[in-house]
């Protein structure tokens, strides 16, 4: 069920039966965020931004290093740097797996899905 349908249903039920003062206070107490919760969320957001940027920078440097190695192998005649085909294929394959793995693991940890609907 979509969030709009749930909200419409809640609005219809709340219009049908007016809430007493005590009910309103209970709802406010249960749903309001404390100042500490707000500070925690702000800190979490700042940390996520920081680590997302650091992860991206690391992956760019890692990819650039692998690219330089591949280019150096391609320029074997001029700079005397040689890797066998097997080693080069292994380097590219494991680098790609590492990049995708690091990205997936770190981003899944940083940006967890939380369920707010009950």
> How many helices does DSSP assign?
5
Q: What class do helices, strands and sheet pairing give?
A: mainly alpha
Instruction: Using the alpha-carbon principal axes, give the shape.
Output: elongated
**Helicity range:** over 70%
Strand content: under 5%
Low-confidence segments, ≥5 residues, pLDDT <50? none
Q: Output mean pLDDT.
A: 80
User: Cα-atom Rg, whole angstroms?
Assistant: 27 Å
Q: Could you give the distance between the termini?
A: 12 Å
Structure summary, number of beta strands: 0
SSE string, helices as H and strands as E: HHHHH
Summarize the main sheet: none
Description:
With 118 residues, this protein is mainly α. The chain is built from five helices and no strands. Helix 3 packs antiparallel against helix 5.
Could you outline the blueprint of secondary structure elements for this entry?
Blueprint: H1 3-16, H2 21-31, H3 35-74, H4 76-79, H5 85-110
